[in-house]
Amino acid sequence: MKETILLTKHMRDNPEDSHLIESYEKNNGYTTAKNTLLNSTPENILEEIKSSNIRGRGGAGFPTGVKWGFLAEDEDRYLVINADESEPGTFKDRILLERDPHQLIEGIIITCFSANIKEAFIYIRGEYAKPARRVQQAVEQAYEKGYLGKNIFGSETDLDIVVHLGAGAYICGEETALLNSLEGRRGEPRLKPPYFPAAKGLYMKPTLVNNVETISAVPWIIENGGEEYNKLGVEGSTGTRIFSLSGHVNNPGNYEIEMGTSFGEFVDTLGGGIRNNKKVKAYIPGGASAPWFRGDQLDIKMTIDDVANNNSMLGSGAVVMMDEDTNLVSAAKSIVSFFAHESCGQCTPCREGTTWLEMILDRIASGRGRTSDINLLLDVCDNISPGLTWPPKMTTICPLGPSAVSPITSLMNDFRGEVESLIPTKVLL
Amino acid sequence: MSWDEKLLKQAKKIIKLYPQKRSALGTLLHLAQSKDGYISDDSISVISDLVGITEVQVKSVSTFYSMYKQEPTGKYLLSVCKSISCEINNSSEVINKLQEFTGLNNNETDEDGLFTFEAVECIGACGGAPAMQVNYETVEGLTAENAINLCSWLKEKQPDIVVADDMQKDFGGVKSFDWAIKDNSGATSNAPGFQTLKTTKAKK
After folding, report:
1. Most buried in the list A121, A244, B30, B85, measured by CB within 10 Å?
2. Cβ-proximal residues to B168 (8 Å cutoff; 6+ apart), any chain
3. What CATH number belongs to B76-171?
4. What is the pTM for the complete model shown?
């Protein structure tokens, strides 16, 4: 299989200076935005996005055109780019921010024109200090050129972009937590309803919250047409997607491919196979929140719907391969520790539950587990997400708590023997 | 108020970037940290006046986020990733050896104020696992040995600016992505958050 290069084209063609406006413009950058602002209408742009059938690349996979269509009327409306990429295994937005910030800015200009928005924020996780410097530099270059500010490209359109740095909280990837954070509050997810920031978002005003990759795709879609984009990939998962491949593979990295191929083919070709010719014991199809697949499930297709039909999620597009020698209890413990650390603490099932799961798994991993621990793990999981179903039922404001349950249900469903083998049968003295 | 005129001017510029004053809080906390290496009580008081909220409200926000440090931080903040991709690529060995080398527990700073050590969650360098950051500059494809060499080098040279590309070249291995822009900018302090936010914008 081969990659299909749309979003990563400019950065690959110009590896030395793809982040600079001179390089971006030399390769026809900003012409789509300029044409849009001078010759198109907001309705036309929305139609193209709808006909592209692009779905959000942040994790939930919500149709972008539908989201834009929801945006309520108001004098003040905002666009917030979610660049809080923190899902373990994911590093695709990092490359888009670091290597091609002008593509994102052009996407923002077109999006704001379509949605009649005059103020946009790029919320970048604090640990991405270097990518954030690049984006800030790019924003300043765009201001100097008159591509941001008042009367962009000599049109009637005004737009300001503010780059905002987070400060180390995964939970701010949840859109309402991100908005609270941007309002200068603790990054705690908001109670729903209101369900959609498009109705009540930043300062309770209509707000579009979109992922970096989604908005970076906008210039290509508008330049080539929604129909062209819709032809790529498969129905329900159109276009290309940047998958972050990591774990025990020979060639980890970001790969831009059309959705629809199988995980096995992806890993064997682009990923160069598993290191030392080992077999896959288990793999994560879509970031740490996603339930695992077994090594004998590599023929599952990489589409949003195929993965969902197999009771997991394509999520943020982070694929993590774990070979036959992996200690899956330690792996699960690492993921649960992550969620315990990142729980915002609002909801008791998540705050207390994730901490208990971490302690019990730690006990088992260090050889001090108790026979009763397996049922205890499942009981704690059931208190966080009743019935352990997929998609998970919730006892909490946001899905972070139930996400911590995913690796444990995967362990118990498919690798229970491995957990049991770590629990001593003799009494420890 | 013990922020000097220059800092206050910068703070006021930052506040103007946002539709509402309070939105500047996160950025002002980064500014405070770049001044002192942590969020001092004094900064909390200044910020509460600037933004028009109580000191408790400022404190409650600053303690929510792990990058705002509540105690002075060493010249080099060593953040080693322990999340899933790094974990299955032996990050625990890097963590153990670095703790041995520095003699530091998690979130501890040495007496000379040179190193602060922390084991952190995912830093988005999973393709180059195991990875770490020095003052938020990323080094990927580490081995325990190279991580120690990196820290020995920091200890010996004590550079004022640490640059990801330089560290990667001398101490790194596999990277998350390969096509690379040569970049000599780097982190000038253990709170590089703020330096990315120049406030030179021509606002409406």
Report:
1. B85
2. B138, B139, B140, B175
3. 3.40.30.10
4. 0.96
